[in-house]
Design goal:
Layout (H helix, E strand, L loop, with lengths): L3 H11 L1 H21 L6 H32 L1
Helix pairs in contact: 1-2, 2-3
């Protein structure tokens, strides 16, 4: 694989785990965008925003770990 985007595309096509993580990451991103589009955030909104950001980062870390594992297998 030449670059990271090609590697991710390959994993999207071949890894169910990667697809699930990517889908959940995308859903979480949309939820954050909806919250951030509000004119005013309540305390509950702010707490939910914080929770979503942490969850999104955790998902990204898991995806990056799968990418790293795949790279090691190919080396």
């Amino acid at each position: 694989m030449e670059n990271l985007e090609e590697l991710k595309a390959h994993l999207m096509a071949t890894s169910e785990d990667f697809r699930k993580l990517a889908s959940e990451h995308s859903d979480t991103h949309r939820q954050l965008e909806a919250l951030e589009a509000k004119d005013h955030l309540t305390m509950d909104d702010e707490a939910e925003e914080h929770r979503l950001k942490k969850h999104k980062l955790h998902l990204k870390d898991q995806m990056n770990q799968l990418v790293s594992q795949y790279k090691e297998q190919m080396a």
